[in-house]
Design goal:
The protein is 45% helix and 12% strand. The protein is an alpha/beta fold.
């Protein structure tokens, strides 16, 4: 049986963002889990604090479930899902055959994009959320390369108050997107079987961040040309080919 795969989405997304890539991968009978981050497609579970540590612990649980049934897994993450995937691999390398991340990385020198800094700021973040309309979000996501049907689906979920609350809590737990004083200190705990895949035109986490990380760690980097932050949905065939090449080396 093929190695089980765990896909973790990011912000402001849901599992829908993986559909183009999953279709391109054609995983067949491979065990696959594509869970929604708590609070992103349904109300926040009672008592769930929606911090980065809480999401990492939740993802460890997802990985443990797959591991119990199928052995060591391949974990794949995009955006915040990439950061969480790396954290899972740091905390529980025993569960992981490999990790592959797209358009976000735990980097001690990265300080977050403009929207992250807004969400990290009390009152300003709440105002941003209150004034953000689903229709405008759909337009913005589609303009950045996300397929229009998925953009509309993701934007509709923006109406959920818990999703917006969860995003603010998550970003504030990471001081915007700064990991220099916690997760980045554990980078040496990552299994060596890792890969970076990056949309060349990402306006949120520039390609230079990935290039710096790859140079500092020796992690292989595949650049997807003519793609932005959502390369997984914008250029799924190219991303699938990069993942298949990586997995074939393991």
């Amino acid at each position: 049986m093929s190695t089980a795969k765990l896909f973790l989405h990011g912000v402001p997304d849901s599992p829908a963002i993986w559909r183009p890539l999953l279709a391109a991968l054609g995983l067949g009978d491979t065990p696959v889990a594509v869970p929604a981050l708590p609070g992103f497609t349904a109300p926040l579970p009672a008592g769930f604090p929606a911090t980065k540590e809480a999401y990492a612990d939740w993802a460890v649980g997802e990985a443990e479930t797959l591991f119990a049934a199928h052995g060591p897994i391949d974990i794949i993450g995009h955006d915040w899902g990439a950061l969480i995937a790396q954290r899972v691999a740091m905390l529980r390398p025993d569960l992981i055959r490999s990790w592959a991340i797209l358009n976000a990385v735990v980097d001690p020198d990265y300080r977050g994009h403009r929207v992250a800094r807004i969400w990290n700021t009390p009152i300003l973040g709440e105002l941003f959320m209150a004034l953000s309309k689903p229709s405008k979000l759909a337009e913005g996501l589609a303009a950045q390369g996300m397929p229009a049907d998925i953009a509309a689906e993701e934007a509709e979920q923006w109406r959920m108050r818990d999703k917006r609350r969860a995003i603010l809590k998550l970003y504030r737990s990471a001081k915007g997107l700064s990991f220099a004083h916690d997760w980045a200190r554990d980078l040496e705990k990552l299994p060596v079987q890792g890969a970076l895949i990056w949309g060349a035109g990402d306006p949120y986490v520039p390609l230079s961040v990935a290039q710096r990380y790859a140079a500092n760690t020796g992690t292989p980097l595949t650049v997807i040309d003519r793609a932005g932050h959502w390369a997984i949905a914008e250029r799924p065939a190219e991303v699938a080919a990069a993942l298949d090449r990586f997995w074939s080396t393991l």
